[in-house]
Amino acid sequence: FFVRDTRRVIQEAAKKHCFACSKIGATITCWKAGCDRSFHLPCAPQGECVTQFFGLYRSFCWEHRPRQAVQACPRQNNTCSICLDAVEDKTSYKTMVCPACQDAQFHRHCIQRLALHAGVCFHCPCCQNQEPFLMEMLTMGIRISKRPPSWESDPAVGALDQRHSRCDAGTCLCPGGRKHTEEEGPWELLLCSSCAAEGTHQHCSSLENSTSSWECKGC
């Protein structure tokens, strides 16, 4: 009976159209009672849908997805606290805010990437808060890994108590080599502000001498 029932569910799902791409095979249906919108999991970002990766693993379409109750504090320069690029001046599907400090704003794709890298050490990149930050991110559809931070398992990082100490730029221009570093100037070594697992000399990444924060391409 279970096999027949499962087969029937799969057959019915195969006939449903994804409201985001219009193709059939949309196996995810909005959890909201009375809503028949279905979508493919890869189409979720395109359709601004949310899937919660905990508890009942509920999914919601763009109309019924959860929204943050807290609003970002008005700032003169609205920038993502992770990539430092511009964000919207209000919360939305693509722009999120930390519910604890209400000052950290970030792109959805940036905080998702940080969550996968940080694993069990995931917290607000600005105020370091884990609760209620963690629950808020889960509710808003951010997938959080339960493994140790990626930089702890990366052989290139070395011992856990050892600070990364080399330039990882494609071409290192420093006359002293990749491990040479100075306290300031073009050969000051900056570590990625998100993962701390990669570094660069300011000059090797065409950064200005006044630059104090840098993020690697992986983050």
TrEMBL record:
Domain of life: Eukaryota
Species: Neopipo cinnamomea
Protein name as catalogued: PHF7 protein
UniProt keyword terms in alphabetical order: Metal-binding, Zinc, Zinc-finger
Species classification: Eukaryota, Metazoa, Chordata, Craniata, Vertebrata
InterPro entries in the record: EPHD, PHD-type_Zinc_Finger, PHD_PHF7/G2E3-like, Znf_FYVE_PHD, Znf_RING, Znf_RING/FYVE/PHD
Any one Gene Ontology molecular-function term assigned to this protein's record: zinc ion binding
GO cellular component: nucleus
Keyword Transcription regulation on entry: no
Transmembrane segments: none
Keyword Transferase assigned: no
Gene, per the UniProt record: Phf7_0
N-terminal signal peptide: none
